[in-house]
Amino acid sequence: MDDQTRNILEILEDDARILPEEIAALTGMTVEEINQKIEYLEKAKIIRKYKTIIDWELAGENYVYAIIELKVHLERKLGYQAIAERLYKFPEVRSVRLLSGEHDISITVRGNSMKQVAFFVAEKIATLDQVQSTATHFVLKTYKENGLILDEPDQVKRLAVSP
Prior knowledge:
alpha+beta; two-stranded antiparallel sheet; 6 strands; about 20% strand; flat
């Protein structure tokens, strides 16, 4: 990949709403060149999706997120892809990743309550034939998402401690 293409991708990754005119100004390329590159990158599926990061807590929605680590037993002639495909079809599942280490797969799920997520894991994930065990970690707070800091630290004013 050439430096210009990498630069365009990094600019778009940082701000998907940036206009081609602004990218052209940042890169020294013409708007037509930018549009052609972006069209190519979309057709080649290098650019997969434009995403908005939403702070649901600030929006007044109280979603519960959990990261579930799975140990799986692979079926004969089927690899991790088969179990990944079963997992990512559930609408609650936000991401599926193959891991190294103690667990084989990590999924991130979203629900309306801890109880709903717990039932989802118990009824839909743990019951899959390939799943040997699960470890569920509820997300208590997200400080940074996709490179964006969500929780800007406030200036904490502490009282002086006197002896």
